[in-house]
Amino acid sequence: MARLLLIAAGGTGGHMFPAQALAEAMLARGWRVKLSTDDRGARYAGGFPQGVTIERVASATFARGGVAAKVLAPFRIAGGVIGALWSQLRDRPDVVVGFGGYPSIPALTAAWVLRRPRMIHEQNGVLGRVNQVFARRVDKVACGTWPTTLPEGVTGDPVGNPVRQAVLDRAAAPYIPPGDYPMSLVVIGGSQGARILSDVVPAAVAALPEALRANLRVAHQARDEDATRAEAAYDAAGVRADIAPFFADIPRRLSEAQLVISRSGASSVADISVIGRPAILVPFAAATGDHQTANAKGLVEAGAVVLIPEKLLDAATLARHIAAILENPGAAETMARNALGVATPDATARLVALVEDLVKDGAGGTP
Questions:
Q1: Which pLDDT score, from 0 to 100, does residue 78 have?
Q2: Measured at the alpha carbon of residue 143, what is the angle toward residues 252 and 129, in degrees to the nearest 5?
Q3: What number of other Cβ atoms are within 10 A of residue 365's Cβ?
Q4: Mean of pLDDT values over 239-245
Q5: Contact, 310 vs 285, CB < 8 A?
Q6: Do residues 164 and 20 lie in contact, with contact meaning Cβ atoms separated by under 8 Å?
Q7: What mean pLDDT, rounded, does the chain reach?
């Protein structure tokens, strides 16, 4: 029977997208693949190949909800661990790979108890809370952003952040520089949207010179509660905007964009780099360990993006930077080319090699 890879991930698209990339690659290599996630994570599993078995487990976070939810969280997690132990005793996965998020706790805990070969992949430049817990309890730590801040005594393997096949299909897509013709501005705030971008970007677009604004069409990812307000602002500015809480076709939209405005989540940074587009990045100020600023460092140093700290973001500042890029096609082309220079399009292949090494080495005994 073919080897079995158990992927544990959930919470947001930032955890699920690289997990999906690994699943696609391992299925192509003849492996069986199972995804362990919770109800929230399953919402982002729609892009996984049909060959992936999805197993929902009980989990919870201590970061959201009221007092009752926080009190019940450890009991939900414990129930998930028991279920994961039973599942792994039955299925005996050859390797377990965690991608972060609270839904990965049950599968990783069960793999540690049963001494199954196991690994975590950290997308950001600073370990997330769950990966911090498991960094010393796995056989390998794969790092998407390098350098990654790791616990003392833990070594990491820099592999980059895997991107989905739909992104790879548009890797290094030819860039059409800005000019006096219709241009596309893509605004993404991560898989959950970003309220500050929904407030500031429409106002910044409205403040652009009329000739520039007239050529713009906007694709803006916004939460449902922010969409109506953003749509009204674009309408008032006379700008055509496509607003949705999530774009399933974001690789196509990025490839057609003259400029991207985005949070600097690890998956967004990887997608922008692999496709190669100029961007304005606004790191999420409350991100653990300021990891979104760390994620953007490579692109900033390469001259591929403009980084605006959230506390300095306002409509006038953003409008100035948008105009500086869209009114200077040569500079925009240079930014796009520089983004490609820091991309790691073979990150999935590197991660696949680590997975197969774990099987070959007979790992699993890390206490």
A1: 81
A2: 100
A3: 8
A4: 95
A5: yes
A6: yes
A7: 92
Distance CA 163, CA 143 (A): 14
Q: Model's pTM, two decimal places?
A: 0.89
Only one residue has tokens 């749509």, namely 231
Please give the DSSP secondary-structure letter assigned to residue 20. Answer: H
* 280 CA to centre of own chain: 17
pLDDT digits (tens, 9 = 90+) for 166-181: 999 999 999 999 999 9
Place of tokens 């070969």: 117
Q: Which helix (H) or strand (E) holds 220?
A: strand 216-221
CB 342 within 8 A of CB 299: yes
Q: What is the rounded distance in angstroms from the CA atom of residue 285 to the CA atom of residue 291?
A: 9
Q: Which residue has the tokens 């999530």?
A: 246
What are 79-109's pLDDT values in tens digits? 889 999 999 999 999 999 999 988 899 999 9
Q: What's the pLDDT score for residue 366? A: 53
The position carrying tokens 């414990």 is 78
Quick one: pLDDT at residue 361?
Answer: 79
| Residues forming a β-bridge with 124 | none
Q: Is 145 helix (H, G, I), strand (E, B) or coil?
A: coil
Read off the tokens for 6: 């158990």
For residue 244, list its beta bridge partners: 221
Tell me: pLDDT of 72 over 90.
Answer: no
DSSP letter, residue 57: -
Q: Residue 275 is encoded by which pair of tokens?
A: 């496709």
The amino acid at residue 225 is E
List pLDDT tens digits, range 116-148: 999 999 999 999 999 999 999 999 999 999 989
Measured CA to CA, the distance from residue 307 to residue 293 in angstroms comes to 9
**Residue type at position 236:** A
Quick one: angle between helices 329-341 and 315-326, nearest 10? 90
* Rama region for 153: left / alpha / beta (φ>0; ψ in -120 to 50; rest): left
Query: End-to-end CA distance of the chain, in Å?
Result: 29
Task: Read off the tokens for 116.
Answer: 């199954």
- Could you count the other beta carbons within 10 Å of the beta carbon of residue 8? 34
Report the C-alpha gap between 237 and 231 in whole angstroms: 10
